[in-house]
Amino acid sequence: MHNNSRRHHIKPRLIPAITLLFAALASMHASATVASYGSYVILGEAPSGDNIAIARTVIDTNQTCPTVSEVVGGSDISMISRDNPNHFSVLVCEALIEFDKSYQINFASGAVLLPMAKSNPENILVYGDTGCSHCAAGTAAEPFKTLADAGAAKNADLVLHMGDYNYRGTSGKTFFSSYQDGKWQQLEEYTYDAGDGESLGEHCGQVPGQPFLSQSASNSNRPDIWENWQDDLFLPADSLMTSAPWIVARGNHELCSRAGPGYFYFLDHNTRLTGSKQLSCPIPDAGKDAEHNTVQIPNYVVSFEHLDIAVIDSANACDNSSQSPFTKKYKKVFSELESAVGENPAWLMTHRPIYGVEKPGSQAVPCTSKNDFSCINQMMQAALKQLKSKSLPAAVELIFTGHMHRFESVSFPGSKRAPNIVVGSSGVSLSSGAPYGANTTEVDGEKALVLSTSNSLTLNGVQYPSFGYMSVSVAEDGSWQSELLNPEIPEVIVTCNSEQKLGSGVCELGKGISVEH
């Protein structure tokens, strides 16, 4: 059990005075402090295929789970606690709620309004890679908090998060204690990270013959703890979590060898409330390979009136390795996706880009697997080629991802292949690696137009960091338009739309914005 020495009690968002009764209620509890570290709504899919909306709150372990009720005339629904196999020092309580209805969580000290889960979201916010590796303990991750507060002010209907929530608790190296030569030693080693930044091994970054290393191992000095999740997600995203429900993807920083235990406890949509199984990370076994120490979250689809959002778990998909046992797993992932999406226009969201460009290219120097990391994700591209269709389902019209610490759009004009928009610049230290600006290249055998930011941009002679989040408007026919925004930058950074008629495919730099080498 980890001691929770730092506590940040969050002021409740009290329900506005809809009637005199609610005005009195708000007045009664206006000065009360609800002992909750965050109340939010996660959307997902039940085993039956139906959409689900899950109300959750994080409270002290010595408290009793509160109730949920409709704001007007609703009876109390008991919340239950989620299983806590990794002994986090807080309690997560949850209950199922219905779409298109207003709900509140009822604490002894007051009621907290939950965001409504709408069956027809029209305004959607997209964030990715939001944590902070250099921020001081006990402080909210920045600039994610600034971006989250700006998004919350837009009163959007839905938030999509592409993963990598927890950087503070997932540094690359961890100290492992071992007894050697008659004495205890502390050895600093990289934990398993599915090949992200690691030399290639048989199992995507795990050197063959070496033990599987996990932060959750009993001899690790850096287990996944609540304080890091609080600082990197719940403090900075407080207003964003109460403004709209979330659909979440898991990042490689939430692998079971890193902050996976917290992801499955706080964010994953799988719940016992639907008769399903709450997923959790296996107990690390240093003697077994990566396949036996990881979890693959089943695909799921949230179906709205005019749009389906399909989510696949790409945390284990190594960026530059297609020769791995995991490639077969991703063939199965894409095969199951074909039967999961329907006739509605669909967006596919996942952490790692299916089509992302790391190195500059031209038609003469295509983005291929000959250069490691030049074109990602090679594992998922290889898995798609093993399908009979050799492609994503035709209903998938747009791919949203994160992982690359920048904004990037990869478009395929004249092709049926869906464009891949990368929103990986919502808080983490930005990448200054190429490419910059607009490029033409070849990606996985097809001509591609690539638009990419670097770690900074220039507007009217002033340089700004290229952090941002995306605001998307969706029409009834599934068409969309979007803007990449940062409240500290006076102009829109990037504009995009579904027409693919812009100079750089689906996206182009905003007015007066330039990105230089």
Structure description:
With about 525 residues, the protein is of the alpha+beta class. Helices cover about 10% and strands about 30% of the residues. The chain is built from 7 helices and 30 strands. The strands form 7 sheets. An 8-stranded mixed β-sheet has the order 14-15-16-19-21-20-23-22, with no helix packed on it. β9, α2 and β10 form a beta-alpha-beta unit. α6 packs across α7. It is globular, with a radius of gyration of 22 Å. The termini are far apart.
Secondary-structure blueprint:
Blueprint (H helix, E strand, L loop, with lengths): L19 H10 L6 E10 L5 E10 L6 E4 L6 E2 L1 E2 L8 E8 L5 E5 L2 E4 L9 E5 L16 H9 L5 E4 L11 E8 L2 E8 L35 H9 L3 H4 L4 E3 L11 H7 L33 E4 L4 E4 L13 H16 L5 E4 L6 E2 L17 E2 L1 H8 L10 E6 L5 E5 L8 E4 L13 E7 L2 E7 L3 E4 L2 E4 L3 E6 L5 E6 L8 E4 L9 E3 L3 E2 L3
Parallel strand pairs: 9-10, 10-13, 15-16, 16-19, 19-21
Antiparallel strand pairs: 1-2, 2-6, 3-4, 3-7, 5-6, 7-8, 9-26, 11-12, 14-15, 17-18, 20-21, 20-23, 22-23, 24-25, 24-30, 26-27, 27-28, 28-29
Helix pairs in contact: 6-7
